[in-house]
Design brief:
337 residues; alpha/beta; TIM Barrel; eight-stranded parallel barrel; two-stranded antiparallel ribbon; 14% strand; NADP_OxRdtase_dom
Length: 337
């Protein structure tokens, strides 16, 4: 597979080009079960070889471990290859409830001093003097009318510390970023948009297109469930965060709905050429506002499979229409629904 086969899309109206499938680096920190750094490096190298040029990480992924593994791997690449790779990371809110509640003050969670200190650590971990994209890892609508943390990021951009400003949406209120996009305060938003979570198609994604805001889609595979490889009785190890994500009867309920998606693909004749994971990724890519879909890649085999999905033809309109019926208003897993 040549690099040219993976489509590149601009990250917003004036953003740098990113591969249609990006590298999600959460598992590199070890929260998806045991992960050797050598596996992580091999996965990164394979993904880059196949044309993936966008990597998304965060300090919470193994207390900086994901960032440092990425930095070490990229430092060994030829300069011309390294310069084509874009790395996004995040600043989490300081100590307090996750996600921030309506009663949290930005002064307590994202003070200027805290943001500046955290950004310096991100620069150190990633061995760079400028971050391609710095995202606030969560947000609350309570701060929209006085979004001082974003003004701090604007100053850091003016100082050459960051290139692009972003926010990762809180799961329970993804639409909180709509006002921020319209006010021109963010360059990029990272959202959940998948076969189950389709609410962003109502307003968030159209507003992103209208304002030229870049869109990164996360959780396109619903933390692995939409690959179809987990049966109803599957249990994740205690050191895998999915043991709580799919706690109780959630895995069984999810597996039943995944089977219905598989039946739709079969009926439309797509089950032979598209795996469930392929179809899930292509669905997440289907809205024109989406710049890239980040997918977890723990080893070279996963990197190859996910990169290949980027080269497949788009799903036809009639199949997309059918798949929309799988929207699932399940609330937020983290809230115990």
């Amino acid at each position: 597979m040549s690099n040219e086969l993976i489509p590149l899309r601009p990250l917003g109206h004036d953003g740098f080009p990113v591969s249609a499938v990006g590298f999600g680096a959460w598992a590199l920190g070890g929260q998806w079960g045991e992960q050797k750094d050598s596996q992580s490096t091999a996965a990164l190298e394979k993904a880059i070889e196949l044309g993936v040029n966008f990597i998304d990480t965060a300090p919470g992924y193994g207390d900086g471990r994901s960032e440092t593994v990425i930095a070490e791997t990229l430092s060994r690449l030829p300069a011309n290859v390294r310069d084509s790779i874009h790395v996004a990371t995040k600043t989490p809110p300081s100590t307090g409830p996750w996600p921030p509640t309506p009663y949290c003050r930005w002064q307590d969670r994202y003070s200027a001093a805290y943001i500046r200190s955290d950004v310096e650590q991100r620069l150190k971990n990633l061995k760079t003097d400028c971050l391609d994209l710095l995202q606030l890892h969560s947000w609350t609508r309570a701060w929209n009318d006085d979004p001082q943390p974003l003004l701090v990021l604007q100053k850091l951009r003016e100082e050459g510390k960051i290139r692009k400003i972003g926010i990762c949406t809180p799961e329970q209120d993804q639409n909180c970023v709509i006002q921020l996009m319209r006010d021109g305060l963010v360059d990029v938003v990272q959202v959940i948009f998948n076969l189950f979570e389709q609410e962003p198609a109502a307003q968030l994604l159209p507003v992103a297109a209208e304002t030229g805001t870049g869109v990164i889609v996360r959780v396109s595979l619903d933390e692995g469930a939409l690959t179809g490889k987990y049966p109803a009785d599957h249990e994740f190890p205690a050191d895998d965060f999915r043991s709580s994500y799919f706690a109780g009867d959630r895995m069984g309920r999810t597996a039943a709905r995944v089977n219905e998606i598989a039946a739709d693909l079969k009926e439309f004749g797509f089950s032979e050429n598209y795996t469930l994971a392929d179809a899930a990724i292509k669905f997440s890519q289907s809205h024109p506002a989406v710049s890239t879909v980040i997918v977890g890649m723990r080893n070279p085999e996963q990197a190859a499979r996910n990169a290949a999905a980027a080269t497949l033809p788009s799903l036809p309109p009639e199949l997309l229409q059918r798949l929309r019926r799988h929207q699932w208003l399940r609330g937020v897993w983290y809230g115990g629904k």
